[in-house]
Structure formats: structure tokens, C-alpha cells
Amino acid sequence: MHTQNSFRLVALDLDGTLFNSQSQVSNENKSAIKDAIDKGTTFVISTGRPYSGLPLELMEELGIRYAITTNGAAVYKVPEKECLFETCIPASLASDILEELLQLNIHINLFLHGDAYAPAKCRQALLKIRSLPDSIKEYMLTTRTSIKDMPAFLREQEAGVQKMTLNFPEGEDNSFPDRGKAMEILDKYPQVSYLCGGYHNLEFTMTGISKGKGLALLCQYLDIPIDHTLACGDSENDLDIMKTAGLGVAMANAPREIQALADDITLSNDEHGVAAMIRKWL
């Protein structure tokens, strides 16, 4: 049973966890993290975002030196962008899957070497998605390199893909008509596995990749027992790391099924939930 002060490493999700609903980090959360780092706790970002989507200035301000990115497909040392571990979808497989997905009305993000790309034809689909907050739409629009023929780009570059993320415009009845079609396509490829990272999206990596595996590899690298780690998140892509860590904490804004599987629940991301978790457990 864990007690206060027994944790040496804390892994924090970004969107919906450390970030509030405006994609900002409160001063309360910043202060709590700085105090814990000053006392010797290592903090790690654990996110579905690529390296290029990390808040590097914020991480430098807080003293956070490591990041588990793209749902565990790549683990980096920051700010050197030193890739410590990486597992990619091979370019040939990624291009085959992408060609099928591009027949649907969806927005697709691809993450290669820590950078973010999007097929040019997907821009209009992104603008039509009502469920995505404007701050996240703006983040996607301003941080993706647009490529006209993305399958050809992957084959020419022979570039492995760390992760792909799919976002879906709503139909008139607020359902997501192409989400099921995308799942049918992905189900044909057992080499990859998918889950939801929030806002009804789908995110897929090579099968066996997860934030939890990224945490285990990083703990080996840092020589920190995994029992002395804490992971905090709000979405399906956080479940594995919450189970892998010594203690898994869900945000109050997480779906009920995520909260039900957590060891503890903190306040929401708009109520400085990370700071509350730190005060309770560190």
C-alpha cells in the first residue's frame, strides 16, 4: 500500500489532465509541480502528442526532462530531442492503411520522427468537427506539415510512423458515421492496435505499444522501481499506464469507465486536479 512521499516519478497526461479546457496550465499546477521537483520527484509527460507537440518552454520552466510521446511509441529526453526508445509502423504498412482511410471523411494526423503531418485533403474535415475544442483545432492547424500525397511521401521517405490519429466530423444526428468504417479498416491489420484518446477519436500504433510500456522502459533507463511511480490521466489511452504505474489516478473529468478502473480520483482539469493529486500523494 502506497503512502505519501513514496513516489519517485510522476507521469502526467497533457490534454484533459495537466492542461485545462483552454489548453493552459494553471499557476496552481505549476507551483505544485515545481515544489515536488525541488523535493526530488521526477516528472514525465505522458501524451498521445508527438515530440513537436510538447510544450517545451513549459517543460523547461518546470524542470521536466522526459516525455513518453505518441502513446508510448517514442520516449524522448528533453530538450535535446534524444530518442531513447522508438517503435514505428513500417512505411509500407502505414501507406497501405492510409490509402484506405483516405477514402473516408476524416482528419488524419501522422507522427514521424517526432514531427506531425496531415494529408492536405483532410483540412476541410477538421474544420467541420464540432466536438473538438477550438484550441485543439488551432493546435492541429498550426503544427502539422501538409502533404498532398501522404502515402507516396511515406514510401519515398521510407519513414516509419510512430502513430496515426483519426478525428471524425459529426453527422446531422451528432453520430460519427465514418468512425465505424475506420474501425473496420483497422481491424483488417492485426499488426496495429487502436484506442480512443478523447473527443471520439481513434489512435493507432504498432500492436503492443502503450504509454505503460513507455513508462516501464523509462523506469529501467532511470533506475526507478515502477512500484514507486504514479500516473495521472483522463482517457482510454491513459488506462495502460495507470495500471502499469504503482498508482493510477484519474481526473474527475475522465469518463466514468476510466474513473472506475483508477486507484484514485482527483479534481478535474479545470479545478487544478494535478495540484490536488500532488498535495495528496507527494
Strand content: 15-25%
CATH third-tier fold name of the largest domain: Rossmann fold
- What is the structural class? alpha/beta
So, CATH architecture of the largest domain? 3-Layer(aba) Sandwich
Helix count from the secondary structure assignment = 12
Task: Spell out the helices and strands N to C.
Answer: EHHEHEEEHEEHHEHEHEEHEHEHEH
Level of helix content? 25-40%
Q: Name the average pLDDT.
A: 95
DSSP strand count: 14
Q: Which sheet architecture does the biggest sheet show?
A: 8 strands, mixed
What is the CATH class designation of the largest domain? Answer: Alpha Beta
3D shape: globular
Low-confidence stretches: none
Biggest sheet: strand arrangement: 5-4-3-2-1-12-13-14
Question: Explain this structure to me?
Answer:
By secondary structure, the protein is of the alpha/beta class. The protein has two domains: 9-87 and 209-281, Rossmann fold, CATH 3.40.50; 91-206, Hypothetical Protein, Haloacid Dehalogenase-like Hydrolase, Chain: A, domain 2 (2-Layer Sandwich). The chain contains twelve helices and 14 strands. The chain has helices at 14-18, 27-38, 56-62, 91-101, 123-127, 134-143, 150-157, 179-187, 211-222, 239-244, 256-260, 273-281; strands spanning 9-12, 42-46, 66-69, 74-77, 82-86, 107-112, 115-119, 145-147, 163-167, 192-195, 202-206, 229-233, 247-250, 264-265. The strands form two sheets. An eight-stranded mixed β-sheet has the order 5-4-3-2-1-12-13-14. It has a six-stranded mixed β-sheet with strand order 8-7-6-9-11-10, sandwiched between helices. Strand 12, helix 10 (239-244) and strand 13 (247-250) form a beta-alpha-beta unit. Helix 4 (91-101) runs antiparallel to helix 7 (150-157). The chain is globular. The two termini are 14 Å apart. 47% of the residues are buried.
